[in-house]
Amino acid sequence: MSRVANTDGLVYRIPIERMEEVKTIVKAWEKRTKMTMEYDYTTFIAQADVNNYIAVFDNGKIERKGGAVKESKPCDYDLPIVKDAVTEYFVHGITPEEYINSINELAPFMKTYKLMGSYVRALHGDEEQQGKVFRVFASRSRKDGCVYKQKEGKNKEKFAGCPERCKIINEDIRDMKCPAWLNKSWYIDEAYKTIARYIGGEIYEACKKGERIQTLLYNRYRKGNYGYNAENTKR
Length: 235
Hints:
Elements: E1 2-6, E2 9-13, H1 19-33, E3 41-49, E4 52-57, E5 62-65, H2 80-92, H3 96-102, E6 111-114, E7 119-124, E8 127-129, E9 133-138, E10 147-151, E11 157-158, E12 166-168, H4 184-199, H5 201-208, H6 214-223, E13 233-234
Antiparallel strand pairs: 1-2, 2-13, 3-4, 3-13, 4-5, 6-9, 7-8, 7-10, 9-12, 10-11
């Protein structure tokens, strides 16, 4: 039996033969505290920590919690291609290469940066940019640079997580297709970094060292071992 908990819930991995024992314990707790426990039944959980997880429930519903995997909304469209690729890997066993290379719409590849606080300007390479919000896309072109922010009288600072080469497209991109310059490999690598964080162990340690982890993950993929398989889990 194993568990993960936060302030409002418990996740237990419970052998089926011990379920009646667990229900007896829960009923005793409910009687003592005058509170009621609710049960959700999951067939699979991939979890980085208590607030970041992907869960598949027994009715087929998929729940995605945490900034690295949550479903993106139009108001916070920020690397949805990576979040969806991570979910597809754990839930359906589809590799980031397969998923990301199958998407032809440009919008899901968007990374959004905002100029905030005491930062007074943004630069693309050495060129100052107008505005405060920037839609960034990883580029294969060596002519493209990174996006930076700068305080008055200070050195420029790279926006966190920005590709070393990228383009800024701030116009309407809803009907745009992926151009030839788009560097899909950058997004694939980002997906693998998130997957490594969720799996942990030797794979996460290899990722932190800057090693390419595709081979280790490929071996897991071939064996059908995509993450923490919490069959018959009660939450």
